[in-house]
Amino acid sequence: MNREQILALPSMPAVGSSYPKGPYRFINREYMIITYESDAAAIRAILPEPLQPAPGNLIAYEFMKMPDSSGFGAYSESGMVIPALLNGEEISFISQMYLDDEPPISGGREVWGFPKKFANPKLEVVHDTLTGTLKYAGQQVAMGTMTYKQENLLVHFNASDHTSCDPKIIEKKLGKKSCNLKLIPHVDGTLAIAQLVSYNMTDITVKGAWAGPAQLHLIPHVNAPVADLPVKRILGGSHFIADMTLPYGKVEVDYLK
Q: Residue 1: which residues within 8 A CB-CB, separation 6 or more?
């Protein structure tokens, strides 16, 4: 390969690249999000500067199913999102993510700095219950459950509730700025990239949205430390299906400068 051919490659490996160039379109992306109050000190310890905790000490624990993702295929995901403030702006900080598919793990880490690791998440309907589970190294570390489609948010909503809102508000939440801590080393082991990066989902269409009671159980695990943000009080659950596009992002803070 010559220099021009090398620079035109979308990703590693050069033969059989892990993922193509973006942006990336998601069709029928399904979420179950359980919102809960956690420990203020634990949240503060995880957030990188200059981020500040948002009022309420809330965590959004997510189980997701992506059946149609351009360039990435079909996979499931589970993770934790921390509402935070960046220079006074409300943003979402992505703290932990666990997936069962290599391309979005590689692409997510290398391009946007998503904190992705390989695991076995699942989102499914079991009889009358929407059920999310996460196993890491064969051990269950999270289980979330929610009533199935009992409150249809397309016909009823409560904008003051953290788990129940107009689909337009869901679109706004999905399109809100999200931030990741991107850390990539040089070949000599020192950090080549140490950045706080941001992105916004675009072209969002909510196809269905529901709310209801929910429960969440987190189990301590050294390599999947979801339980480090303990559950103090559960506010409820939201369940929705949407199409959206993940574009490229930008650098908010370069810690090496």
A: 14
